[in-house]
Amino acid sequence: MGAYIVRRLLLIIPTLFLIILANFALIQFAPGGPVDQIIAEQRGFGEGATDRFTGAGGDAGTNSNSGNGAGSTQGLDEEYRKQLEKQFGFDKPVHVRFFTMLRDYITFDFGESYFKKRPVIDLIVERIPISAMLGLSMLFLTYAISVPLGIRKAVKAGSRFDVWSGVILTIMYAVPSFLFAVVLLQTLAAGSPFEIFPVRGIETSGWDGFGFWGRITSLAWWQDAIMHITLPVAAMMIGAFTGITMLTRNYFLEEMTKQYCITARAKGLKESSILYGHVFRNAMIVIISGIPAAFVGAFFAGSLLIEVVFSIDGLGKLGYEAALNRDYPVMFSTLFIFTLMGLVLGIVSDLMYAWLDPRIDFESN
Questions:
Q1: Which of 21, 62, 289, 336 has an alpha carbon within 20 to 30 A of 14's alpha carbon?
Q2: pLDDT tens per residue across span 161-172
Q3: How far apart are CA 320 and CA 326, in angstroms?
């Protein structure tokens, strides 16, 4: 197992390199850039979010190259543009900028945000706990509901309960999380017909001066935070809820038809004893070992869209804003963090699988 772990850890290095390289190369051909953005703002207009993706942002977008910040210079001093390019480092060759970035990333030196004027590592450290709180809350509630429901569906396989719950789960799976989030905002948030939950953020503005420990030791803060995160967590759960429920059902059904269950029934054991004494332990191996992978999905894909919809200042929203503003240090830093966490949690998932099921031997494979 030790050699397998070492191989997986070493594999992280080329994987990170190729992912960063591919995205860095892609950025060189994307329209717009921080230099063009500053120039557009000084001219009194800017590009819309849609224009940036479609390249329809006028001179500032269509005549630019994000790698070197070059674009239209009509009405502008060329010397000023060169100063901006030097300020952002675009006066250096592409390969020099890329390998300089890699050298800094090895020591987790992500530089300074172009537009927030703060160290990127400080921004990331501020946002990670918020995204982690959403992801862990979603994961805990999803497993707490999905596993018992999946077991119930396996026990009642083929019944009306199994069929109709399967139909409801399929509909839930087909609804995008961000669309469900918008529906929740329109029906349950402030300004809606019911006005039960807050519209945005994870806390009211009155808690700003209490500090970290002042918040977590206050029961009132927890009540306020729970009210704020209820809708975002519910929106994030809708897709993962169906997947884990059906996974639990299928694995329990598979285990219930194996020979050891048939033998246990022949010996006169009760179904509940077979289910929770034998089937549960074996069927839950794959489900539990999938927790790290489920967290990765919730933390990355789910948090980005949901944080944007609910205006939650997490890591996903930080990366989204950086992409729109062409804040390259923040963009590549969040990509680096996401990728690194995903690769490490993938190894953790394999180790949990091998620990829960001694029959798994990655070394021999």
A1: 289
A2: 999 999 999 998
A3: 10
Tokens for 333? 């830093």
Which tokens in the block code for residue 142?
């999803």
Give the Cα separation of 15 and 339 in Å (integer): 9
The Cα–Cα gap between 251 and 235 comes to 26
**Whether residues 83 and 124 fall in one domain:** no
CA distances from 51 to 114, 323, 344 (A): 21, 13, 36
**Nearest in space to 105 (alpha carbons), one of 120, 93, 85:** 120
**74/147 same-domain check:** no
Residue-range definition of the domain harbouring residue 219: 120-356
Q: List, as one string, the DSSP characters of 38-90.
A: HHHHHHT----HHHHHHT-STHHHHT-BTTTTB---TTS-HHHHHHHHHHHTT
Q: Rounded to two decimals, what is the model's pTM? A: 0.76
Each residue of 62-107: pLDDT tens digit?
333 334 444 444 445 677 777 777 777 788 888 888 898 889 888 8
Instruction: Indicate if 302 and 239 belong to the same structural domain.
Output: yes
**Which of 292, 301, 294 lies closest to 345, judged by CA?**
292
Shared domain check, 157 and 102 = no
- Let me know the angle formed at the C-alpha of 234 by 233 and 238, rounded to the nearest 5 degrees: 115
CA 47 – CA 114 distance, rounded (Å): 17
Residues 93 and 131 grouped into a single domain: no
Find all residues with CB under 8 Å of 362, minimum gap 6, and list them.
1, 4, 350, 354
Considering 48, 83, 106, which residue would you say is the last residue of a domain?
A: 106
Q: In which residue are the tokens 């269509």 written?
A: 62
Is 143 contained in some domain? yes
